[in-house]
Each structure stands twice: as structure tokens, then as C-alpha cells.
Specification:
By secondary structure, this protein is mainly alpha-helical. 84% of the residues lie in helices and 0% in strands. It has helices at residues 3-20, 25-35, 38-51, 56-92. Helix 1 crosses helix 2, helix 1 packs parallel to helix 3 (38-51) and helix 3 runs antiparallel to helix 4. 17% of the residues are buried.
């Protein structure tokens, strides 16, 4: 399965999970689109299956929490990369 097909499968799975819980398909599409990455969609699907949230607000809150975690992870990785470059400059000079 290609990366594109895998992403599409995660997208469909999340929408189907939300619809199965009784929410509109459009809501599922909005959640999936906001999450964006395959990993975050899988995480959200797992949350929905285990927690079975009772309101759309709970789903939206979890979506925002997952998005926030992803943004923190990206910022951490960028900081680690910048720190590694800085240390390399300190150790080897600017050459």
C-alpha cells in the first residue's frame, strides 16, 4: 500500500468511526481534515473506539489535544535539529 493509499484508508476509517458513533459524515470529514496526518487520524480513531465520547464537543476537544501534541512534537524535533547544528558549529567551527 502506498503512502497515499494508507493516508486515504486512515481518513476513511476515521470518518466511518465517527459516523458509526452517530455523528454526521461532514463532521467526520472536518475532524479528519483538521488532523491531517495518518498517525493523528489513527490516534483519533483509537480514542473514539475506546472512549466512545458522548458529545461532538468531546470529539473536538480530543482533536484539538491531538493537534497540539503533534505541534509540540514538531517544535521539539525542529529544536533538536537546530541544537545539533549549533553543537556541530561549536565543535567544528564554521568551516
Amino acid at each position: 500500500m502506498s503512502a497515499s493509499e494508507s493516508w486515504k484508508a486512515a481518513y476513511r476509517e476515521l470518518i466511518e468511526t465517527i459516523v458509526h458513533l452517530g455523528y454526521p459524515e461532514e463532521f467526520g470529514k472536518a475532524v479528519a481534515s483538521n488532523l491531517g496526518s495518518e498517525k493523528t487520524m489513527h490516534r483519533m480513531s483509537a480514542y473514539l473506539r475506546s472512549a466512545k465520547p458522548r458529545s461532538a464537543e468531546e470529539i473536538a476537544d480530543e482533536m484539538l489535544a491531538i493537534m497540539s501534541d503533534r505541534e509540540r512534537w514538531i517544535a521539539k524535533k525542529e529544536a533538536e535539529e537546530a541544537n545539533a547544528r549549533y553543537n556541530e558549529i561549536l565543535n567544528n567551527g564554521l568551516e
